[in-house]
Design brief:
Number of strands: 0
Structural class: mainly alpha
Radius of gyration: 22 Å
Distance between the termini: 57 Å
Largest sheet: none
C-alpha cells in the first residue's frame, strides 16, 4: 500500500516500460540517428525555440489557469465542491480534446502551408478543419446533455451528483467551444500576414 505515492509510482513505472519499449522497437532508427548526428552538425535550438515560445508557453499558461480552479474551490468551498468541479472540468477537457483532434492531426500541414506562404490554401484548410472541430465537439456535448437528462430520469441519477449541476456543465462546455474558436482564430491570425 503506497498511499498517495501509489499513483506516482504507477505513472513512473508506466513511463519506464514505455521508454524501454520505444528503445527496443526503434533501436535501429535510434542508432541511425546517432550515427548521423556524429557526421552532421545543425543548430536545432533556433528552430526549436521559435516553436517552444509559441506552443510551449501557450500550453503552460493554459494548463496553469485551468488547473488552478479545483484547489481554489477546495480551499473556499470544501472537498465535495472541489470534487464536482474537478470531475466536470476533466470531462469538459476530454470533450475539448476529442473535438480538437482535427487540428492536432494536421498541425504539420498548417506549418508547411504557412512556410510556403500559401495563405488562401491555409484559410480554406483552416475553415474546413474548424467546421469539423465545432461539429464534432457539438455532437459530443449534445450527446452528453441528452445522456444527462436520460440518467436524471432513472434510478442512476446518483452518478449525476458527482458533477456540477447541468447549468454549470453547459456553461463550461460553451466556454470550451468559445475558447476553441478564439484560440484557433488567434493561431491563424498569428501565422497569416
Amino acid at each position: 500500500n503506497g498511499g498517495l505515492y501509489s499513483l506516482a509510482f504507477a505513472m513512473l513505472f508506466s513511463s519506464l516500460i514505455s521508454s524501454i519499449m520505444v528503445v527496443f522497437t526503434f533501436k535501429r532508427q535510434i542508432a541511425q540517428l546517432y550515427r548521423l548526428s556524429k557526421k552532421t552538425n545543425y543548430n536545432w535550438f533556433s528552430e526549436f525555440w521559435t516553436y517552444f515560445k509559441s506552443y510551449g508557453l501557450s500550453v503552460a499558461i493554459g494548463f496553469i489557469t485551468v488547473q488552478i480552479y479545483t484547489p481554489l474551490v477546495f480551499n473556499y468551498f470544501g472537498s465535495i465542491s472541489a470534487g464536482k468541479v474537478g470531475l466536470t472540468m476533466s470531462l469538459s477537457t476530454a470533450f475539448f480534446s476529442i473535438g480538437n483532434i482535427w487540428f492536432q492531426a494536421i498541425a504539420p500541414k498548417f506549418n508547411i502551408i504557412s512556410s510556403l506562404k500559401k495563405w488562401n490554401e491555409l484559410d480554406l484548410l483552416f475553415n474546413k478543419t474548424l467546421k469539423k472541430t465545432v461539429i464534432t465537439y457539438s455532437i459530443i456535448c449534445c450527446s452528453f446533455v441528452a445522456f444527462y437528462f436520460i440518467l436524471d430520469l432513472t434510478d442512476l441519477n446518483l452518478i449525476l451528483k458527482r458533477f456540477l449541476p447541468l447549468t454549470g456543465i453547459v456553461i463550461l462546455l460553451l466556454h470550451w467551444l468559445i475558447q476553441n474558436y478564439i484560440l484557433t482564430q488567434g493561431a491563424l491570425a498569428w501565422i497569416s500576414p
